[in-house]
Amino acid sequence: MNTNAVTDSGSNPSISNNIIAFRISESNLGRDLKGDNYIDDSVLGYLDISSSRVGYTSIYCQPLSPKVSDNFISCTQREDVATQDLTGDGDFNDYVPI
Fold first, then answer.
1. Band of the pLDDT at 1, cuts 50, 70, 90?
2. Do residues 85 and 92 make contact, with C-beta atoms less than 8 angstroms apart?
3. 33: helix, coil or strand?
4. Are 18 and 49 in contact (CB under 8 A)?
5. What is the pTM of this model?
6. What is the pLDDT of residues 38-86, one digit of tens each?
7. Among 5, 10, 11, 13, which has the highest number of CB atoms less than 10 A from its own CB?
8. Could you tell me if 61 and 23 are in contact, meaning their C-beta atoms sit under 8 angstroms apart?
9. Any idea what DSSP says for residue 66?
10. Burial environment of residue 89 by CB neighbours within 10 A (0 to 12, 13 to 18, 19 or more)
11. Closest CA relative to residue 79, chosen from 57, 60, 58
Protein backbone atom coordinates (compact mmCIF):
# COMPACT_ATOMS: atom_id res chain seq x y z
CA MET A 1 0.00 0.00 0.00
CA ASN A 2 1.40 3.39 -0.98
CA THR A 3 0.20 6.28 1.20
CA ASN A 4 2.15 8.86 -0.81
CA ALA A 5 3.36 10.18 2.56
CA VAL A 6 7.00 10.81 3.33
CA THR A 7 7.65 10.68 7.06
CA ASP A 8 10.09 13.02 8.75
CA SER A 9 13.74 12.08 8.75
CA GLY A 10 14.54 10.42 12.07
CA SER A 11 10.90 9.64 12.76
CA ASN A 12 10.21 6.05 13.66
CA PRO A 13 6.66 4.92 12.94
CA SER A 14 4.86 3.06 15.71
CA ILE A 15 2.60 0.10 14.96
CA SER A 16 -0.08 -1.53 17.11
CA ASN A 17 -2.93 -3.70 15.90
CA ASN A 18 -4.11 -2.04 12.66
CA ILE A 19 -2.74 1.45 13.33
CA ILE A 20 0.55 2.94 12.18
CA ALA A 21 1.35 6.39 13.60
CA PHE A 22 4.08 8.61 12.22
CA ARG A 23 5.40 12.15 12.27
CA ILE A 24 5.17 13.99 8.96
CA SER A 25 6.24 17.43 7.83
CA GLU A 26 3.58 19.77 6.53
CA SER A 27 6.01 20.73 3.77
CA ASN A 28 6.04 17.09 2.59
CA LEU A 29 2.26 17.33 2.25
CA GLY A 30 2.28 20.86 0.88
CA ARG A 31 -0.44 21.84 3.37
CA ASP A 32 -0.72 23.94 6.52
CA LEU A 33 -2.45 21.56 8.93
CA LYS A 34 -1.86 23.63 12.09
CA GLY A 35 -3.47 26.75 10.66
CA ASP A 36 -0.53 29.04 11.42
CA ASN A 37 0.05 30.03 7.77
CA TYR A 38 3.34 28.11 7.60
CA ILE A 39 4.14 24.63 6.33
CA ASP A 40 7.19 24.06 8.51
CA ASP A 41 5.73 21.97 11.36
CA SER A 42 5.88 18.24 11.98
CA VAL A 43 2.44 16.87 12.73
CA LEU A 44 0.91 13.55 13.69
CA GLY A 45 -0.22 11.27 10.90
CA TYR A 46 -1.68 7.78 10.98
CA LEU A 47 -2.71 4.90 8.77
CA ASP A 48 -5.52 2.51 9.62
CA ILE A 49 -4.43 -0.65 7.83
CA SER A 50 -7.85 -2.32 8.08
CA SER A 51 -9.61 0.50 6.20
CA SER A 52 -6.62 1.84 4.22
CA ARG A 53 -7.47 5.28 5.65
CA VAL A 54 -4.65 7.79 6.01
CA GLY A 55 -5.23 10.71 8.34
CA TYR A 56 -3.30 13.81 9.24
CA THR A 57 -3.91 15.89 12.34
CA SER A 58 -3.08 19.45 13.35
CA ILE A 59 -1.21 18.11 16.41
CA TYR A 60 2.40 19.28 16.49
CA CYS A 61 4.49 16.20 17.17
CA GLN A 62 8.04 17.04 18.21
CA PRO A 63 10.68 16.06 19.13
CA LEU A 64 9.80 12.42 19.70
CA SER A 65 8.09 10.03 17.34
CA PRO A 66 4.48 9.08 18.16
CA LYS A 67 3.58 5.86 19.91
CA VAL A 68 0.56 3.58 19.38
CA SER A 69 -0.90 1.18 21.92
CA ASP A 70 -4.30 -0.50 21.70
CA ASN A 71 -5.49 1.95 19.02
CA PHE A 72 -4.51 5.00 21.11
CA ILE A 73 -1.93 7.36 19.64
CA SER A 74 0.25 9.65 21.73
CA CYS A 75 3.08 12.03 21.02
CA THR A 76 5.00 14.80 22.74
CA GLN A 77 3.80 18.41 22.52
CA ARG A 78 5.99 21.40 23.34
CA GLU A 79 4.21 23.99 25.46
CA ASP A 80 5.79 26.92 23.61
CA VAL A 81 4.39 25.63 20.33
CA ALA A 82 0.97 24.99 21.89
CA THR A 83 1.19 28.50 23.43
CA GLN A 84 -0.28 27.02 26.59
CA ASP A 85 1.09 26.14 30.00
CA LEU A 86 -0.10 22.54 29.75
CA THR A 87 1.48 21.48 33.05
CA GLY A 88 0.30 24.49 35.06
CA ASP A 89 3.79 25.28 36.38
CA GLY A 90 3.86 28.88 35.14
CA ASP A 91 6.16 28.47 32.13
CA PHE A 92 6.11 27.29 28.52
CA ASN A 93 9.29 25.18 28.71
CA ASP A 94 7.95 21.65 29.08
CA TYR A 95 7.39 18.73 26.75
CA VAL A 96 4.04 17.12 27.51
CA PRO A 97 2.71 13.75 26.32
CA ILE A 98 -0.67 14.05 24.64
1. low
2. yes
3. coil
4. yes
5. 0.76
6. 998 888 899 999 998 999 988 888 767 789 988 789 888 888 887 889 8
7. 11
8. yes
9. P
10. exposed
11. 60
